[in-house]
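QA checklist item 7 of 12: single-chain prediction sanity check.
[x] sequence parsed
[x] length recorded as 799
[x] structure emitted
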Amino acid sequence: MSQRLTPEQLRRQADAPSLGFASTADLEPGAGRLGQMRAEQALDFAMDMRFEGYNLYALGAPQIGIREFVHARLAPRARGHDVPEDCCYLHNFADPSNPRVAMLPAGMGRRFKHDVAQFVAGVRATLPAALASDEFRQATAELHQQLQQRQMADTTELQREAEKLGLTMLPTPNGFAFAPVVDGKVMEQEQFAALDEAERTRLGEAIEQMSQRLMERLRDYPRFHEELVRKQTELTRETAGRVLKSLVARLRSRYQTYPAAIRFIVEAETNLLDNTERIVALERGEMGAAGVPPAAAAAAADQFFLQYQVNLIVDNADLDGAPVVYESNPSLDNLVGKLEHRFEYGTPVTDFNMIRGGALHRANGGYLLLDADRVLQKPFAWESLKRAIADRTVRVESVSQLLNMAYSVSLDPEPVPLALKVVLMGDRHIYQLLRAYDSDFDNLFKIVADFDDYVPWDDVHQREYAVMLAGVVKASAIRHLSAGAVASALEHSSRLVEDRRRLSARVKDMEDILREADQLAANDGADTIDDRHVDDVILRRAYRVDRIRELVHESITRGITLVDTSGSKVGQINGLSVVQIGKLTFGQPSRITATSRLGRGELIDIEREAKLGGKIHSKAVMIVANFIGARYAREHPLSLHASLVFEQSYGGIEGDSASIAEVCALISSIIDRPLRQDLAVTGSMDQHGAAQAIGGANEKIEGFFDVCRVQGLTGTQGVLIPQGNLDNLMLRQDVVDAVTEGRFHVYAMRTVDDAMATLFAAPGAPDVDPAEVNRAVSDRVLELHETYLALTRGSRDAP
């Protein structure tokens, strides 16, 4: 016989006075965690492991608040670790396309960047000034004067030699020339012609001799000039060297214990020394074509000196311990960093100063939190993340490089050594897919933290839940909750998991409810959130998405969709299903009908024949067919043709929760005995007739109750559910009140026989004996078989 349930069995009530506090103001706010001991142990173990591959996949629904949980768990651990090093990129003077990495102690990167910038500023100001000083000018003038004196001495000597030969040296547009003289004056042409042949010959030979002597001296002049230039360069370099040595001394002394930094300083000093003249020209605006605007000249100088700057991509100076980084947009650029570009004459170019760090750089030495679905949605992000974890280095890559598209001047920065723990957060479906289709996944994420969707509803967790709510109050800056409000929250949390012995661990759902309840309390001018505010929020949330449910129930009420809630009928029963559309979930009564006649043991599932039945539903109908045959036709064939259908169903049917209802409808049709229409049935069954628990018990009961209430409660209406669903019952308070008042009933059944005992009785009458029903079915099935035999014998005897 079915068991009529008491109001206490339909909803677990949280006792506000027994909670031990008047409001959450009496509680110390918690960190928002609820239970999750299994996940805590997995998280701690993964973070403690020093070997490669022990990264973590945090497994669970987002509403649990996994990210907040993980962050809160890692934050104290991170504060106990040393602050990781700063990361800088520096110009590689030997190979500019391969910038070098410099790792410096936390805070040192910022100081190094500042000191180098000060050094460069000092070079730009001091070096041109030193090369424009009076001392340098005087030294330069002395070099030029030495050359001039050499030239003058050579000229004087040649002049004396020429005079001895009766010649003088004259300047001409093409250099110097020698001519004969007489009485101290250059000999005229007529005078030269009047000389005898011997004298003319002598003078000609003398001119030839002196011209040769002049050519010999002139051949040495380029060498003298080169020597002048060399000495000038040496002077410039010596002067610049003294300036740079003075300026760089501070850098050398401060960073001599950091190899990457001191290497850059030495190379920068050498490069500056080699480019001294260019630096002076740039600072004086002498580079480029004439007429270049001062602003353009200054920009050219600034661009040149960028190679001596420090690109600090990770600055950990303000950290207190290791970093805990959550990247909400884990694209390739945001993970491994990127190379920015600027356009020069229409061509994109870049340099080491345009390298930008990513989440892997910022989390280096600490912890990186990522959402699995977001990483997988971003092109190339997942593969780059795996490569960084496996190689223990992070390399700045771009999509164009990965696709081998060299459309711009690019760089190949030196990879950064990587040491961090990655926490990947996602649901179970993604976890299973990654394990199945990515061979690298298990090697890189060896630990899984499986977050529970619920915790036991006992005194310990009830207290933890209240403390968690106090934490929500503090974090959201909302009004405190009264003990009654906490009790309502506990009841609703239990309803969310459809288990009166458990509470939902999906704290995000409750956070939203409390924030909305705070608004209602504000509208009322209340100082605290009370139970009526929490209950009102729950009703309002349901009402906001309830339009479709109202339309469905209105269709039943108006007689468009035929569902009887009173009387009795043969071969017809009220089944219950759950409809889910977005956030809306509600129970919907469905009329199930059965027909039967003489046949050959066929049970037609009309839903399956019409291709509207799912696999589980088809399996359930097969169980029904075999149950009928095994119970009522063990000694002879089942000479029966029957059919089952969900009436006015125009969509797919799935699930096995209508099995018991289908058996009862089929039996009613076989024995031509009516079933109560004021009752609805939900429950699965096995081949032996045992009732099995189903899902959505609360919504199904409430769905039939809503239809009955609109059509008018008679006091006999109710729902039959499996005994195994008793722990799932957390019905709405209005349903519990109706049961308390005797206007509605909920029954629990263990077997199909329990259902038959109640359904075949008259409304309001005691249950019938199921053995009587079973005998009637057996007799009718045997009668059909005998009729079938008689008909088949008659057909064989006919002439």
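[x] summary fact logged: The chain has 29 helices and 31 strands.
[ ] second reviewer sign-off
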